[in-house]
Amino acid sequence: MTSAPTDLAAQLDRQDPLAGFRERFVGAGDPLVYFDGNSLGRPLRATGPRLQRFVDEEWGGRLIRGWDEGWMDLPHRIGDDLGRICLGAAAGQTVVGDSTTVLLYKMMRAAVAARPGRTEIVIDRDNFPTDRYVAAGIAEELGLTLRWIEVDTTEGVTAELLAEAVGPATALVVVSHVAYRSAWLADLPELVRITHDAGALILADLCHSAGSVPLALDAWDVDIAVGCSYKYLNGGPGAPAFVYVASRLIDELTQPIRGWIGNDDPFLMGPSYTPAPGIRRFLSGTPPILGMLAVRDMLELLEEASIDAVRDKSVALTQYAIDLTDEVLAPAGAVLASPREADRRGGHVTVNHPAMREVTARLWAQDVIPDYRDPGGLRLGLSPLSTSFGEVERGVEIVRATLDALTA
Ligand SMILES: *Cc1c(COP(=O)(O)O)cnc(C)c1O
Questions:
Q1: Does the beta carbon of 180 sit less than 6 angstroms from any atom of ligand 1?
Q2: Which family would the database say this protein is a member of (predicted)?
Q3: Residue 151 Cα, ligand 1 centroid: separation in angstroms?
Q4: Cα 130 to averaged position of ligand 1 atoms, centre (Å)
Q5: Alpha-carbon distance 166 to 173, whole Å?
Q6: Would you call 334 helix, strand, or coil by DSSP?
Q7: Cβ atoms of 170 and 198 closer than 8 Å
């Protein structure tokens, strides 16, 4: 099963200017094929020692003094680094904390409150479950209406579909920059323009693009963005999420979870809540410091590699996976369910076949780790700095052999 890579895969790896980064990740030398870096990125080798040092020196040595000596600023420092390296966001607009789900709730509430009198939230039917559930809950809570965009699940939200859905009643548009199922890469600047023409605000979910697809949030005039740090940012299981709010909006928005850390002067412990000026107002409670340390290692790596080079490799990897799908999987009845145009495609490729649920279970038992997305979707997530072309080839060949064994 673990045949040597063909000339083409070996050549692609030899020509890959980022190939050397692979060895910086734990486990990258193992024969295991990892197609799930878009659900949980591999840890960096640097992260273990960093965590150990933090426990020994900062937590163990500085104890509570650590809050005054840098921890309190860490959500902002990492937010600013993320903004600079990956998001195209100037400092002071991005902060780390909470989970994506909680931030989605806080920011959707903040956004609809800033458009009083407007009664609709626009979201697509194939958006990630948590985005849809949170939007539906807020609509129920506030008596708003969800206006669903029906999308082709092998694509995603297009400018045409959004233009038909928005209007004078729209308070907020919620859209994933890269669709979790198909990897459809939305034309975010165009979606922003359409939303603003309708007088509404837009919230972009960046879970599947941060660290993989370059963003220009400031230049595109995005209002609000939320994303997680454990997919292409390799922050580890349950690492905290981040939120971006355009500086022109920060002081206009108030979020519903009024905790002491988002208060103007947390240590005054005063009688009532006044939101802090600046991006800190979107935090609620004590920042999860341990959970955000690993992200720093990945941000350093992304800065060294540059997000544009990461995107180039991502496009090459997904193109190679599509070529192999056409050559190796299509003859077995599998169908590509991701965009073929590189500029409409994020960092993964989905391949449909009715047997994929069972195929995925068998693959996991053979140390080939893709994801399964109902109905019938095998998702090949290709994390640019830790995935090699040889790994893609080996994985796809084992998918084919497993499909053959099951459907023989
Ligand atoms: C992964 C993902 C989430 C995850 O939310 P959590 O609160 O971190 O579990 C949310 N939205 C999208 C689009 C995702 O891909």
A1: yes
A2: Belongs to the kynureninase family.
A3: 19
A4: 7
A5: 8
A6: coil
A7: yes
